[in-house]
Structure to design on (250 residues):
C-alpha cells in the first residue's frame, strides 16, 4: 500500500484572506497510515483564520503525540474525539484571551487512514467524499440549518442547496463547551480516492464532477478542482485535500 496526496488551498475570487486550514501527515514509514485535516474558519477577518489553524494544529499535535498508544489499545476512534475536544477548548481559551474575536469558530473534518480503514470525525459543513471508480459518495452530513432540515426529510437536496440558511452552522468548534462529533468508520480499496474539502469547493463542484476529474492525473487533481471553482466565481475560500491508495504495499 502506498498513499499519495494532492492538495491546495486558495482564497478564491472574492475573499481578501483565506480562513481555511489543512494538514496531512504520514504516520508510518511504509506509507499505509495517515492523518488528514481540513477546517473552515468563521468569525471575522482574523478570527476565522485563527480558529481554523488552531483547530488543525491542536488535533494534529494531540493525535501525533498519542497515536501509537491509542493504536495499541484499539482506541483510535476515541482518540479522534478527544482531539476534537482539545481543539474546542483551545479555541474557547483563545476567545477569552481576545474578546474581540469572541465569535470565532471553525468546522473541522478529520480522516484517520489505517490500512484499509478510514475513520472520519466531523463537525460543520466541510465534507468528506470517497471516490470509487467513477462514483463519488459523500460520507459526511452538513451541520447547518439546511443540512439538518434535509436529514429530517423537510428539504430535498436541491432545496437544501439554495436554502437561505445553508450557511448557518448548527455545529462547529468554538460555539460552546459541549461538542457533538459525528464519527463514521468505513473501508476503501486500492485505486480509491478520499477527498476532504471546504464548502467553497463543494458548493460549486458536484460530486459527480469530482469523480470524473479524479479519473485523470491524480497529482493535479486539487489544482483542477480549485481552478474549476474559481472559474465559477470562487465566492469563498477553497480547500481540497485528496488521498489515494495505490498498490498493496507488499
Amino acid at each position: 500500500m502506498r498513499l499519495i496526496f494532492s492538495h491546495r488551498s486558495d482564497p478564491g475570487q472574492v475573499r481578501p484572506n483565506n480562513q481555511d486550514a489543512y494538514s496531512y501527515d504520514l504516520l508510518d514509514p511504509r506509507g499505509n497510515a495517515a492523518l488528514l485535516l481540513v477546517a473552515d474558519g468563521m468569525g471575522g477577518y482574523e478570527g476565522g483564520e485563527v480558529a481554523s489553524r488552531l483547530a488543525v494544529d491542536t488535533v494534529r499535535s494531540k493525535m501525533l503525540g498519542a497515536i501509537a498508544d491509542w493504536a495499541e489499545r484499539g482506541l483510535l476512534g476515541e482518540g479522534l474525539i478527544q482531539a476534537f475536544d482539545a481543539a474546542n477548548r483551545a479555541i474557547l481559551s483563545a476567545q477569552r484571551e481576545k474578546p474581540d474575536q469572541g465569535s470565532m469558530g471553525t468546522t473541522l473534518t478529520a480522516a484517520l487512514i489505517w490500512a484499509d480503514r478510514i475513520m472520519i470525525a466531523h463537525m460543520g459543513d466541510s465534507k468528506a467524499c470517497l471516490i470509487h471508480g467513477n462514483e463519488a459518495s459523500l460520507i459526511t452530513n452538513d451541520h447547518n440549518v439546511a443540512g439538518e432540515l434535509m436529514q429530517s426529510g423537510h428539504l430535498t437536496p436541491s432545496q437544501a442547496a439554495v436554502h437561505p440558511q445553508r450557511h448557518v452552522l448548527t455545529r462547529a468548534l468554538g460555539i460552546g463547551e459541549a461538542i457533538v462529533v459525528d464519527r463514521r468508520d468505513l473501508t476503501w480499496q486500492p485505486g480509491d480516492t478520499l477527498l476532504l474539502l471546504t464548502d467553497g469547493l463543494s458548493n460549486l463542484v458536484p460530486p459527480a464532477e469530482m469523480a470524473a476529474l479524479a479519473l485523470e492525473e491524480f497529482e493535479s487533481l486539487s489544482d483542477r478542482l480549485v481552478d474549476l471553482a474559481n472559474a465559477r466565481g470562487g465566492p469563498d475560500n477553497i480547500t481540497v485535500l485528496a488521498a489515494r491508495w495505490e498498490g498493496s504495499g507488499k
Summary: Helices lie at 47-72, 76-97, 145-151, 157-162, 199-202, 207-214, 221-231. Residues 130 and 194 are 5 Å apart (CA to CA). The domain at 2-246 is CATH 3.60.40.10 (Phosphatase 2c; domain 1).
